[in-house]
Queue: 2 jobs
Job 1
Amino acid sequence: MQIELQQIQKSFGRVDVLKGVDLKVEAGTIHGLVGENGAGKSTLMKILTGYLSRSGGSILIDGQEANYNDPAAAAKLGIGMLYQEPQDFPPLTVLDNFIVGRDNHPDNRREWQQRRLDELSDQVRFQLRGDDLLERLTVGERQQLEFLRLLGRDAKLLILDEPTTGISDRQKERLFAALQQIRDQGRTILLVSHKLEEIAALCSRVTVLRHGMVTGEECAPFHIPRLLELMFDKAPVNSVQNRPQATGKALLTFENISANGERTGLNACSCTIHRGEIVGLAGLSGSGQGLFLRLAAALKRPLEGQIRFHGTTLNGRDHRTVKRLGGCFLPANRLEEGLIAGFTLVDHFTLAMSCSESTARVAASAAIKKFNIRGTPDTLVESLSGGNQQRLLLALIPEDANLVLLENPTRGLDLASAEWVWSYLRSQYSSRGTVVFSSAELEEMLEVADRILVFFDGRVVRDLPIGQVVYRDVAAAMTGY
Amino acid sequence: MQNLKQHLIDTLLILAIAGPFTSLLLALVGASPADAFGHLFSGSFGSWSKFSRVLNVWIPLTLCSLGLLYAFRSGLWNIGVEGQLVLGAVGTAGVLRLGVDAASPLLVLMLALLAGALLGSLWALLAGWLKIKGGVHEIFAGLGLNFVAMGIILWLIFGPWKRPGIASMSGTEPFPRELWFPMLEGWRVSPFALALALAAIVITAWVLNHSRFGLNLKAVGHNPRAVLLYGLSPQTYLLTAIIISGALAGLAGGVQVSAIYHRLIPAISSGYGYLSLLVVMLANFRLLPIPLIALFFAALNVGSIQLPMMMQLDSSLAGVIQGACVLSALLVFGLRRLKKGADG
Amino acid sequence: MRFRVRAFLGWATLAAICLLNVPAVFGSDKAELTFGMLLVGPYNDHGWSQAHYEGGRYVEAKLPGSKMIYIDKVNPADRPGLTIPAVVDELVDKGAQLIIGNSDDMKDGMREAASQHPEIHFLHISGDDVLTGNAPPNLSNLMGRMEYGKMIAGFAAGLTTKDGRVAYLGPLINEETRRLAASAYLGARHAWTVVRGMPAETFKFRVSWIGFWFNIPGVTADPSQVARNFFDTGYDVILSGIDTNEALIVANQQRKEGKAVYALPYDFIGSCNSAPEACLGVPYYNWGPDYTRIAKSVINGSWNQAWTWSGPNWEAINDADSSAIGFIIGDALSQANREQLKAFIADLGSGKLNLFTGPLSYQDGSDYLKAGEIATDRQVWYLKQLLQGMEGASK
């Protein structure tokens, strides 16, 4: 099946996410789609699979205009998608999961379905037993099952979203072999990934998206630096300023930390962060940065290793210890993890300062002025805009904090707000405190950080003082090179 | 003001759904709805003696409902309130048994109520502990513990605490009159029990709406993840909330023993635990309506005895009305939320 | 939530039918008396409570102008939150001058209510507050001498059992239930040893207590289950001491499977009707005459506090107007045994035979009655243990 997208547009409100994307995937090929976070990959996939309607443009299947508005219609046309998270029913058996949703198949006897499962399984050399309970399976095996379901449904175009996340190397090899095999049978595959290594190994063509537009299309063999250039904005010329190197004492140390979470987990991470540093955690989203911040805040517990903050080991402690020692954490999901919906500004100050309501009211009024928050002391936090929520979170940081951990601090903020946040943080902590932050924006990091840790697949793959940072190297490290 | 108006509209809506539904049911069995509602009303508010019976139901019902409010604030569904009430009754009865012939009956009575509150809170703590340490959802833990509580009380009544020579569903030997909750001459309700319930309302109102603890509890209930960042331990607050909840339910059980039945009977809870869940739901988890709704439910419970006496109707009509009210309330609140969602 | 709509509908239908059948008793200006009746079970339970309900109706028929207000299911399990003083307040509000409470369980509540309403007369069935001196002056006790009924029932069982194995399905353990079980035992043993001339060692009498007057799932033992166990372990006659009919129903089922087994229900005159071919007879209460007498005493001001233990009218034990205890012979009792039974009843009536005559020992071997000693009413009423020869718990 050949599929062609012409001038696909999508806007959410006034935000244009896709600004006229052209993409042509030839039948019987594996086509790669790459781009950094927020480039518009997921939106494009959702449109392809019928979960989202498009604001403009058309989809052609084998040259014919195709109009479908829901996933069922897309599936009928032979478009199937393999999601990052398996979309299955863990309490059921493998066979049940294989059958489920196919009750209207003319021959839905279990024996017949079992035979079909075995056949497909043999074909791509997966080893799945029909009577195994799904909850006993690894993520990789569940993914294999999903894959078989798609094949069983005669999907002619398979879309795979980051298929190698969280599966073992063996499973990855199996999957790649299977993909090549079904490609040779004439099926079409669209592989979405930010791991350029995998793209290079499998794809014959790759399309690069950036900011909702196609910035280029390349044929195999790929020139990786060229791809990186297409993926990321050009390095700002004077981004690397000369900032004083940190000379402070060790404030936060990670010793051989491993932990579960965020799909990739964190593997054997060791590093030391000093007083007075501003440290940026770079990496494509979900590579372990968020986990790192939560471990440092003692909101998560490591599987092994030791974290020390001000010399105090955090093993077995909770966030209250960190807070007492002067650490605080600002999550990216402000309303889910940082603020309490249904509570006013005053309520938040009462909680944060453990003080009376009248004291909190004074503090809230002062903060509204100082941080320029658009709201009153009695405004409910959920009715604040994202930028104002972030200002409030900053305002809630205790005066005497010496370690501020921020997750994507400028996410969702407009340029002015983002600048304001950084100027505030720098003025507040450059002299006496330490700031550790993650960000999806590499430029932002180069502008403000003294030092950059690059995360890939749950590991810290680079630890560079800002003076040694080469933009392209960081971008390459983020994608596994 | 805006709020008050909305609550008033809600209340009218609820009655507008539940009333016709119940009337229809009555009409179907050939009874006059007007007569039935008339009897219900006169049977509960018709005289001071009747009204004091209503208050006797209102007191434990209000105590349980207030307790539940603490748990709900922290985000817990304390279904175990029924068992906590039962255990509270057991605790009170246990101390009263020991206190027969004691020099100071009043002291014994106070200790007994304290023991009731204590045992109720311990029982609640068990449910909380199972949730936090064992990952058992509090609804299942609570239901299970309710059954165990029932087993304990039956075992006590038919076993160690049975009347001399007799094991009977009618309960243990009644306590001597000195150990009854103090009454005033000619009253059918203890003014002291009434004062206890009123005090509980005032204290709860202050704690939940004006104290730091209340704010923290609400924060835990609204967003248990975020409160970590404010240095609060959700677990501590969950446990505290369920302990208070259990203590109030236990106190209600103590009142049932010392002021109403003057002994331990298998049905000592009178189902007030479960009923209080309905009260709180009907109150939309807010404090102010609770005393009024509890009064309404208590009146239905007391007035419903008129139905079999005067109209040969089964008195479970009271339960039907209560259920219909709660279902209509859930419907009204649900619709309002949907509308809000659509507007937003 | 007690959302018992089905029960409610069924109930209300019954109530409606009932309303249609009750003749109007208003408008008579003869002897105005409103009396209240607290029934522990449903008024139509084919057992204890229905017997009282019929007694009340009997009063209404005999004393024109009298009116009964009843509340049934007066127990905390069926009516949560209800207390006896509260219900009594209601009845008094409605004009009741006499309150009858029909359960031993109401003892404490009746006493409390009686002291709250000194102007109202109270009659507590099966209680002993007058005997013990705990009763306020406006509270009387009334009970029927069911001991005789149980002796007759036991006798019928003893005549019929093939191998001398008789079982007693008991409710809970108290003085009343002990003496009733013992009476049944004495009647059965008399039939086996004296009338049939069998050796005493071959006679077995077993008592099982389910825990309450009727089945409460999860709380009491299941009476049907207990009855089946009796039959399965060789007992062929069950005497029921509980308010409901399970023993007879199980006996009937087993007869259909070819077993020759029998049962004797209890309490209510019509109890045999559900399975007449398995029923040897039923001892029953007839409260009407005593109720009428006491109601009259309230009307004409001759009320006296009393503890009354009413026996059968030996001339005609089934006379509805005079006998407090009766026995209806069941279809299953053989013709020959009927004659024996009639002779037995005549001997009891004439005083020729008194089964509570020593020597009798308690279950633990201690003396109950010395040889030749005849038990006083008090000794029968306050029977401390089961008798020697009976198997089963005494406490």
Job 2
Amino acid sequence: MINITNLQKFYRTEEVETIALNNLSFGIKEGEFVAIMGPSGCGKSTLLNILGLLDDPDDGSYLFNGIEVAKFNERKRSDLRKHNIGFVFQSFNLIDELTVFENVELPLIYTKVGAAERKRRVEEVLDKMQIMHRRNHFPQQLSGGQQQRVAVARAVVNNPKLILADEPTGNLDSSNGNDVMQLLTDLNEQGTTIIMVTHSEHDARYTHRIIRMLDGQAVTENILV
Amino acid sequence: MLKNYLKVAFRNLWKKKGFSFINITGLSIGMASAVLILLWIYSEISFDQFHEKSERIYQMYNRSVFDGKLWCWGTTPKPMGAALRKDYPQVENAARVTQGTFLTSVGEKHLNSSGYLTDPDFLKIFSFPLLKGDAARALGKAGSIVITEKLAQKLFGEADAFGKVIRIDSIAQFTVTGIMKDLPANTRFDFEFLLPWSYMKTIGWDDNYWGNNSVQTYVLLKPGVTEAMANNRFRNITKSHSDTKDIEVFVHPITKWRLYSKFENGQIVGGRIGVVRLFGIIAGFILLIACINFMNLSTARSEKRAKEVGIRKVVGAQKGLLVSQFLGESILISLLAGMVAMIIVQLSLSGFNELTDKHLSIPYGSVLFWLASLVFVMLTGIIAGSYPAFYLSAYKPVSVLKGTFKAAHALVTPRKILVVMQFTFAIGLIICTIIVNQQIRYAQARETGYKKDNLVYTFIQGDVEKHYTAISNELLNSGAVTSITKTSAPITQKWSDSWGYSWKGKDPNAKLDFCIYNVDGNFAKTTGLRILRGRDIDVKTYPTDSNAMLLNEAAVKIMGFKDPIGQTVTNGDDGKWHVVGVIPDFILSSPYEPVSPMIVQGPKAWFNVIHLRLNSARATSDNLAKTEAIFKKYNPDYPPAFKFVDDEYGHKFAEEKRIGTLSGLFAGLTIVISCLGLFALATYMAENRIKEIGVRKVLGASVSSITTLLSTDFLKLVCISFVVAVPLAWWGMHTWLQSYTYRVPISIWVFAVTGVISVFIAVATISYQAIKAAIANPVKSLRTE
């Protein structure tokens, strides 16, 4: 599903050039659940942003379902993203002014799904995430675990092929963290490819494979399944 | 999607009530100001544009050289109208117009009413619809009168006035042949009745003299006749009918009457269009300043909304969609502000009308008005929202969602530039207001040359002329009046001028124009004018004084008299006059201009007005009561009407006072709007720097040092605005003052005072938030962070 070859990303300031990704290459098959691990600043999040088409690489190739997307412009990236990729963040990133229902509904609006269909799909996913009873609440009225469930619901409501999770349990206690990991595992078992950046060895154990990074390069790979 | 946008927009408005209040208040004040000014501008540009044949209507104008300069004027000889109708096939209709105030009576009801004596074509040229009567024939007969609805109501009450008889000056009877819809506010014409021109002959006002330019002549050209063709054809009409060889005639189109009436060297150089443009610019700036508030507050809050932008982008929103979302929000706010603005306009309209001397109203029934309002609201929303929309939608979701995003704090940011723009305009307006008011005070303080207090005048009407001697004697004997004189015009108005005078030593080729004023005697005593040389006109002591004249200093100078007393001055048919005295250059017309050379002719001339000096030792109300009683006794049909010269003189400053008051009002509004924005910016600044303030306090900074730190950034912007505003305001006011010969010098202290006021206002606005942030507990602020 994903094939990156010699991916490079630099961050430049007036005085310093930092290599975030250094000729990184690997592939991820459809249906895989992969953890990316490594110390802070090793390039995990940069990689996730490029994979999620939120950022573009300075060099190298990125094939998504066989299509070269590394040089896609903003419009093409946005189109590909909204139909194929869901995101889960450490800090949930829900819109405070929208209710649970409206937050989850948002991706469907941008993919121009009709109102009735939107309602059906949002309710279905909220039900699945067991937060249906909170549908009219605002994010500030929810616990961290509930907020992350909403974020996961939003990520999956469009039935994306790929979910990118950036430390999804980083702001949660262990109980809520486990719940979220179980949710992701369930989604993966239903066929969704998941790439998760994490510091947690515990969370990584839920995945099929761990790619460990250091200084912008993949140093080892552990296959768990 | 729209529903989603609206939800977010309303929830944002509700959540940030202070921000919303400031935004909507500022924008609505700006919009209300702009709407009021636009209503005023509309009333100006629509002046006399409602006439159906307006593209073919012209006023006849003359141009000729006096004193080496080409002058233009809009009064014409009385026979011109008839000549145009008779000899010029290009003319479809022509009408002469002159104004008169007459006593209009029905039964025992007497009213002094002002109307026009005109030709029947007047109603064919102009679109003043008759509610009753036939416009084509209404003024066709000598005994006919057309009256306005309002006059009909005043004279006849609810009864039908059509076909009824009205007495004019108690001597002539006229039958109402037309009742006209009341005149709209946006016309130059101001009359309550129209009388046929034939009445001019009855009262002896008509003449066939091509050298007397005393009436307006209007023409309706035939279709296809252009302005250039008319000018070419009419150029020599006066020359061909008289000995005058240097007066050219041209036409001035109705479309230019109101706004383009200032001529210099024979060419139109502007007129009220200058004020209209100025007000247009002010309206635009006030609206822009309100929009700038919106821009600044929206971008200042950007960090709060950055997350939303990031999330929307992540889930698939493209930049265009986000731009339209934010523009939609600003249009929504603009719509809310527009509604508030409409209420403000409605509530303030009567005050604004009083201030501008207008009768503006909101045309609620006009579809065009609502369409224009919608466009106005949309446009305001787009102007206010465009910069924030592009600014916010440009955020990179990566940095926003990772929490590494911080809005730029560069040395020069668009926000700072916008604040500088706001305060530049506000400071500029403060400077202008001060200088306009200084100019008014300067002109008001100018010596008029006569004593205005206790001086009143009234027009000679009815039997006053017949009983003048008796009235005069009785007034003086009553003790209410100490002196009395008949004059040709009120002492505050220039009614007549002439270039037909000759004297010994005059250059035969020189064409010099004199202001003409007539008095029957006691002029100096009544008005308080000093006699500089010779004596006043006094026909009782000097019977030959019926042909005596006084000259002002400017006339003596231009005539070149070393010893003016005893000199003879001739004026065509009016014969010989001899100079008996010299008076100072007293102000008859504009207090801003030099006094023109003036000839004051003695009792042989014509009179319209009586000036009375009331006894200053007695109460004015008693003096007036006695004076009115005496006039009523000898002229019972006419309600006595006296005007105080000091009040009338005060009217000369009305236009400048209006500009000064409006400039002050706009300056005040601009400051209010700008300060609302500054206050909100200071609030956000304090919020954004809360951690910095906490750290500084922990490290030992005092409240005053933190307050200074927080205020300095804004004060710098106000100071930059001041530096930008000063030369602009100086240039603007310098240009404005050039139109006045008597003008106040622009002094440095105006700028100094404005600078102090601006800094004071800015400090007062910012200090609340700065002090609040400075005295906050650092432990709390650091924990918050």
